[in-house]
Amino acid sequence: MTGVNLIGPINVQSPIQTYLENLHRELSDLQNGTVASYIPELGKANPNWFGICLVTADGVAYSVGDADQTFTIQSIAKALVYATSLGDRGKDFVSTKVGVEPSGDAFNSISLDPRTNRPLNPMINAGAIATTSLVAGDDATAQWRHIERSLERFAGHELPIDEAVYQSESETGHRNRAIAWMLKNFGIIDGDPMAALENYFRQCSLLVTCRDIAMMAATLANAGMHPVTRQRAMPAEHTEQVLSLMATCGMYDYAGGWLSEVGLPAKSGVGGGIMAVLPGRFGIGVFSPLLDDKGNSVRGIEVCKRLSRDLGLNIFSPAHDPGMALGRIFTGADAPSRRQPPQKQREQLHQRAARIKCLCLHGFLAVDGIEFVIRQMQAMASEANSFVLDMHRVDGLSDSAARLLGEARLGFASDGIAVVFSRIHNRVAISSLLRKPVSRSDRGFLSFEDNDLAVEWCENRLMAEFQEPDCERGLLGDATLFKGLPERLLREVEAASQSQAYAAGAQILVSGQAGDGRLFFIETGHLSILVPLSDGAHLRIATLGPGMVFGEMVLLGQTTRSASVFADSEVTCKIIEASELERISGREPLLKITLLENLGRDLAGKLRVNAQWIKALG
């Protein structure tokens, strides 16, 4: 069984989900290890069961395989009951009964710290039985109810007991009885040690799923707050203590190797579960009953090694708040490109421009930050035609984050949604990672120097959906400057014009040159308007196409060209001399009145668009 629990429309599978499915498929053939048999009921587990679940700190679950197969929690409960005892008694009191040092002995060793007569830590059986006896309650029955409710808060729902496993543990737990009496002898357990031991057997026999232990891990990652129910399972101030003990003592005799190779606080159980935590970011649950000679799940260890390596989850790597990866979100309607299409196209584009989604990314992008960004994109996918990812404020990204982003890009593309990048500029460390192909079908990504170019490309993509075949030739009467002119005046203006063709790349006007009294109407092709910058570079301020006019400021007496104009493609223009318009206006004043009114409205509209850009970009 696979699945992702998300809210909102989803059109594209998450690359996290795809990764887990591939990992599960790859490791399913791993048959090393044996099912636990020292507790007879555990020996009945199906060795082929195998589930993986990853839960984000805000409660989104990615699962694959037997993630909903129940099994007994076993020693994973030790970490959670220890958390409960800290909340009930406080760290100072609990530390008088249970130490915090790795033991170096087997988990069921009948031994105490020779200096303090305390169990060495709460993750071995002696320490776990002690912490079970420390939880609040007037008697053993009340204590059990408290333990049960506490673990259910970590899981987010009620947890039943496997009565057969409980009876099997109780009937065969002679070594643990010896440990309990030893704890009584040294004053670690104050009451009836057998009552505390039975509660210990019960807590180990609670039924959970791989999804449950991932949620429990996410609750620990979230400082004790369940990410879905928002119910507090433990005081936030004790999470560091619990996670520290899990990191150093949670994997039986493999704790040192685990911390070195995986680098995550974790707790395993002989039922086949492993609960691992990336603080502030992820909870991980893995279930596979085949165990190694130390009592840890063989597949579970391999899954966690791969997750840590492939997704960069080691706690010794820099940590980040995933939500910080995403800053401002705006649309093509909020900040359209500086293109100036004819009125009809402008109206059609305005109706659809909100389907262009622009996301401003921030900081160093790790896997959890990119997962958060992709999830926001998924939520918007049903109303999106294109995504622009603005990388201007990105400091860097991990190789695994780049790979997930590439997989998401291909996933959105297969659903007809383009993902393009802007403002990477010359940062090779970022572009080189994004450039790595994620599949044989990957032909790379589109990157633009600025948001305006990126949004314009997305607008072109939008317009391809509604553009009519013959609309690529401009008609003089459609130009904003000539709107409202009677047909007879339009014909007279057209008769006074001259046609001129320009090759792609040709410079039509030069910034700073003396005005020659000409204005231009574009019949076919596209061109760019650029203004010079102080460093010698140019800033593109507009892209014009068929039906548009440029050079019209000569009508207001401008004598010097303020911008350069380059043909982006083959261009044909009608060139009209301002003197010819003055000549016609001498006997037809309506022409000049109409031109000046249209020019004034157009300038006001451009000011509004610029203000809109400033507001959108904040």
Structural class determined from secondary elements: alpha+beta
What are the low-pLDDT stretches, counting only 5+ consecutive residues below 50?
A: 4-11
How big is the Rg?
A: 34 Å
Strand order of the largest sheet: 1-3-2-8-7-6
Work out the count of structural domains.
3
Features:
618 residues, Jelly Rolls, 18% strand, 40% helix, Transcription Regulator spoIIAA, Beta-lactamase, alpha+beta, six-stranded antiparallel beta sheet
Task: Explain what you see.
- By secondary structure, the chain is of the alpha+beta class.
- The protein is built from 20 helices and 21 strands.
- It has a six-stranded antiparallel beta sheet, sandwiched between helices.
- Strand 7 and strand 8 form a beta hairpin.
- Helix 2 crosses helix 3 and helix 4 crosses helix 7.
- The longest helix is centred in the last third of the chain and has 29 residues.
- The protein is rod-shaped, with a radius of gyration of 34 Å.
In short:
Helices cover 40% and strands 18% of the residues.
What is this structure's SSE topology?
Elements: E1 3-5, H1 15-27, E2 51-56, E3 61-65, E4 71-72, H2 76-89, H3 91-97, H4 125-134, H5 140-155, H6 163-172, H7 174-185, H8 193-204, E5 207-208, H9 210-221, H10 239-249, H11 255-261, E6 266-268, E7 273-278, E8 282-287, H12 298-311, E9 326-331, H13 343-352, E10 356-365, H14 367-380, E11 386-397, H15 399-414, E12 418-422, H16 428-435, E13 447-448, H17 451-466, H18 487-495, E14 498-502, E15 507-509, E16 518-524, E17 527-532, E18 538-544, E19 549-550, E20 564-567, E21 571-577, H19 578-587, H20 589-617
Parallel strand pairs: 10-11, 11-12, 12-13
Antiparallel strand pairs: 1-3, 2-3, 2-8, 4-5, 6-7, 7-8, 9-10, 14-21, 15-20, 16-19, 16-21, 17-18, 17-20
